[in-house]
Amino acid sequence: MKHEWRKKEKQYYLPKTKPEIANIEKFKFIQIKGSGNPNSEEFSEKVGALYSIAYAIKMMPKKGITPDGYFDYTVYPLEGIWGLDEEGEKKDVFDKNNLVYNIMIRQPDFVTKEVFDLAVDMTKKKKFNKYLDEIEFGNIYEGMCVQMMHRGSFDEEYKTFQLMKEFCHEKNLLIKDKNHREIYISDFRKISSEKLKTVLRYMVEAN
């Protein structure tokens, strides 16, 4: 049976539209770092590079390659850890050109470094993308987090973050990192901004 994250892992990807505490396990990711405006061509190409690797792994059995433990699954959504560079933190006005990011796509447990390397090689032979060599494979553990589903434009996220910060204050929780995670449940390349669904998440600890 096909593993569908929307059905099997709702606790990670489909929170309510109000803050909640979640314990996030250690997961495997393919990821690539960068900086600057996410509306840029560079960001778009990096997203494309991630998806090309993600689908190369998923489609391996159709190429006659079946990794140990392979099972059919829906490709996980794009995620990103976002922050500001030093110059951006000094400014009073938010500027997208000062953003720094690590964007990623989670991988199933059967994916190993060897499977990842093979997918990169396969993708290079199929389609050129200058960012393929910048993609890394590794584990990320978040632990206790506060998360919430944001509906609407990315430019309105600050309202949801404020609700999450108030929740943390009420629950006596400290936000561990000035950066935050976003999980793009909707494909922002295909639907209007008012219909977007984005999971927002802070790593936290007891105060």
Descriptive account of the structure:
The chain has 207 residues and is an alpha+beta fold. It has one domain: Regulatory factor, effector binding domain (Multidrug-efflux Transporter 1 Regulator Bmrr, Chain A). Helices cover 29% and strands 32% of the residues. A six-stranded antiparallel β-barrel has the order 1-3-2-6-7-4. Helix 3 crosses helix 5. The radius of gyration is 18 Å and the shape is globular. The model has no long low-confidence stretch (mean pLDDT 95). InterPro entries: GyrI-like, GyrI-like_CCH_Lin2189-like, Reg_factor_effector_dom_sf. This is GyrI-like small molecule binding domain-containing protein. It comes from Terrisporobacter mayombei.
Helix content: 25-40%
Biggest sheet layout: 6 strands, antiparallel, barrel
The CATH fourth-level homologous superfamily: Regulatory factor, effector binding domain
Report Rg: 18 Å
Architecture in CATH? Answer: Alpha-Beta Barrel
Number of helices: 6
Count the E strands: 7
* Structural domains: how many: 1
Terminal Cα span: 43 Å
- The overall pLDDT average reads 95
CATH topology: Multidrug-efflux Transporter 1 Regulator Bmrr, Chain A
Organism: Terrisporobacter mayombei
Protein name: GyrI-like small molecule binding domain-containing protein
Domain GyrI-like small molecule binding: 18-198
Pfam families: GyrI-like (PF06445)
SSE layout and pairing:
Layout: H1 5-8, H2 10-13, E1 20-35, H3 41-58, E2 78-84, H4 86-90, E3 99-107, H5 113-126, E4 136-151, H6 157-170, E5 173-175, E6 180-184, E7 197-206
Antiparallel strand pairs: 1-3, 1-4, 2-3, 2-6, 4-7, 5-7, 6-7
Helix pairs in contact: 3-5
